[in-house]
Amino acid sequence: MQKVNAKLGGINMLVSPDQELHPSQLFSKATIIFGGDVSHASPGSQASSIAALVGNTNRSCTQYVARLSAQANRKEMIDDLKSMAREIMIEYFNANGGASNPESRPERVLFYRDGVSESQFQAVLSDELPCLRQAFQSLGDGSYNPTITYIVAQKRHNTRLFVSNPQDGEGRNKDVPAGTVVDTGRAVSLPFIFSGAGFQMLTSSTEAATKLPRCTRRLKISSDSSRRILLLKDNERVVTAGSAELLAARMKRGTFDFHSAFLTNFLVCMTLHTDICHAQEYDFYLQSHSGIQGTTRPVHYHVLKDENGFTPDAIQNLTFALCHLYCRCTRSVSLVPPVYYAHLAAGRGAQYDMAQVMRGSDTSSVGGSSGGGGAGKDDAPTRRIKLHDNVLNGMFFA
What we know:
Layout: H1 2-7, E1 31-39, E2 49-56, E3 64-71, H2 81-95, E4 108-114, H3 121-137, E5 147-154, E6 180-182, E7 187-195, E8 198-202, E9 208-212, E10 218-224, E11 229-234, E12 237-241, E13 249-252, E14 255-258, E15 266-273, E16 283-287, E17 299-306, H4 312-322, H5 337-359, E18 383-384
Parallel strand pairs: 1-4, 4-5
Antiparallel strand pairs: 1-2, 2-3, 3-18, 5-17, 6-16, 7-8, 7-15, 8-9, 10-11, 10-14, 11-12, 12-15, 13-14, 16-17
C-alpha cells in the first residue's frame, strides 16, 4: 500500500519541523534535492548506460519526479544533466504555485550523487556542476543562481562500525544504533630509519625506540610526480622516501625490486592513519539504519561542494532525517532516498529503453536489468528515454 500511495501522489510520512533539533532548518527555505545515478550494463555488454535524475517537487521532500536518458556504454558522467535538471526545476516551480508564489523557486539545491569513485571526484565537479548552473541560468532572465551542496554517497567499501560495549549495540548482532556518525580523521607522521633488519623509530636522540615487523624486499609503490615522493605500501603502513631513492628502483613485473644499497639505512616518514575518515577532506560515515541480519554497513558521504555553508552536524542531521522518508519503508533506510530513487529509476529506464529498441521506434512511449537495450558505444549520442504522460510527473519508480 505504501508503494501504491506513493505512485498515486500520496505522502507516507513526514519529518516534523517542530522538533527542537530538526535537521538544519530543512523546511525554512525552499529546497530542491536531486539524486543522480548511472546504471551500467553487465560486463562485456555493449548496451547503453542509463542515467537517471530525480528531484522533489514539494517542500516536505517526499514527492519526486524522474528524468531518464541513455548514453555511451560505461560512461559515469551524466551527459544530459542540464536538460533533465531544468525540467525537474520547472516541475518544482509549477507544483508550488508558479509565478503566483515567490517561494516557488528553490533558494538552495542539494545534489546527492551515487556511483562515483574517489578518482572521479574532480571530473564530476568540472563536468556536472557547470551543467547544473547552466540549467538554473536558463530559467527566467538568467540571473537565477541558487546555492549548491554536492554530496557523493558510497556504499562499496570495506568499512564496518562496531560498538566498544556490546550493551550499546542493537539487535542480536549488537550492531551500532541507527544515526551513528563517524566524521573524525587524523594522520600522524612518524620518522623512521629503514635498514635490512626492519624499521626503527627515531627519538629525539636518534636512538631506536620501537621496532616494527620486518618489511618485505618487494613492495608495491606509486610515484607522486608533483611532490617527487615515493610511496611504499606494506600492508596498512605507508612509507615515503625522497626522490633520490627513485634511481635505486627498477621496474619488474609491476613491482619494484630494490638494490641492496637501497635497503641499507635511509630516513623515511611513516604516515599512520588513526581514524577512518580523511584527515583533510570533508567526509563522514553515517549508519542510518538498524541492522536486521548480519553486520550493518555504513554509507560514506563525501561533501565535494558546499555553498550553503552547512555545519557538519547540520548536513549529517539533514541526511539522517531524509533517510526516514523512503516511501517503501516505515523505518530509516541505509541510503539517502533521492539516491535510492535514482537507482530504481535507472533500472526501470533500462527496461523502457530495451522495449523501445525491440519495437524499433525511438519515439514510442512505453512503460515497463541493468543497462539499456540500444547500442552504447563510446561515441554513441545521448538520447532521452521518453515516458508516458500518465507517469511522467509521478513516482512510477517507487
